[in-house]
Amino acid sequence: MPYEFNLRYSPGKDELNPADYLSRHPTNKPTRDNKGEDYISYVAKASVPNALTLGEVKKATKNDLQLQKVMTAIQSGKWEKKSLSSFSNIRDELSVYDGVVLRNHRQVIPSSLHHQVVTLAHDSHQGIVKTKKLIREKVWFPGIDKMVEEHLKGGVPCQSSVTGTAKRVLLKMTPLPEHAWEEISVDFAGPFPTGEYLLIMIDDYSCFLEVEILYSTSAKAVIPKTNQIFARFGTTCPEE
To answer: Which 8-state DSSP code applies to residue 48?
Structure first.
């Protein structure tokens, strides 16, 4: 061995044992257990659909007279049965955190954002049952199921009015590129119920797949993602 050393045991009661002192010496710094508060903070942030921000929900909640009454009732314990009946029946499930109302783990959406949230669910074209299930996982407001059904049923005529006039053509195989990343195929999937899109890029030579999450399909959002992919894998320039 390149080193020579001696081992000496020092019992914990030995005053000359610094390691034992450091492990036992108390700190004067007060500690707080914030697990409950941290969990509520996580629920509040995770329950907001990604197409919205927590700030938008807080601002809309502040301007929503009914939710302001609900927040006051939650904090005081005094409920107006007539005007707040939709909420008083579930008052044991409601809480207030950082300017927003929660029903268990779900965000209570202000009335000004109802249409926006349901439209996101409508755009996913999952069908009534699946859409209601997806939207219930994150948000709630009185009459949410009925509103989702009306939006989805309202979308049927516009879908059924589309006629398939395009002629079917046989699929044609494209020539295989000579090198990786010489030719690529790009497409989008979405929007999903929570507002995201997927940017899907496939190398036509190797069929290697890259997927990036986007919140917009604009060039401003797409170009940085494609630049990141090309920075990782490079590009093949055509030979002159």
So the answer is: S
Q: Among candidates 71, 152, 163, which has minimal Cα distance to 108?
A: 71
Residue with tokens 């007060």: 30
**How far is it, in rounded angstroms, from Cα 96 to Cα 77?**
12
> What is the rounded distance in angstroms from the CA atom of residue 221 to the CA atom of residue 65?
36
On whether the CB atoms of residues 144 and 136 are closer than 8 A, the answer is yes
Could you tell me the pTM of the whole model? 0.48
Taking the C-alpha atoms of residue 179 and residue 235, their distance in angstroms, rounded to an integer, is: 10
H helix intervals, the chain: 18-24, 35-46, 54-62, 65-76, 85-88, 114-123, 128-136, 144-160, 219-233
Chain position carrying tokens 């109302």: 101
* C-alpha to C-alpha distance for 41 and 100, rounded to whole angstroms: 11
Find out whether 42 and 98 touch, Cβ atoms under 8 Å: no
Q: What's the full length of the chain, in residues? A: 240
In degrees, rounded to 5, the angle at the alpha carbon of residue 178 between the alpha carbons of residues 174 and 183 is 60
Cis peptide, bond prior to residue 142, ω within 30 of zero: no
Sheet holding 139-140, edge to edge: 94-97, 100-103, 106-108, 139-140
Blockwise average pLDDT, block size 10, the chain, 240 residues: 70 58 60 58 54 82 94 90 86 90 89 84 61 77 86 56 56 79 87 81 89 88 90 68
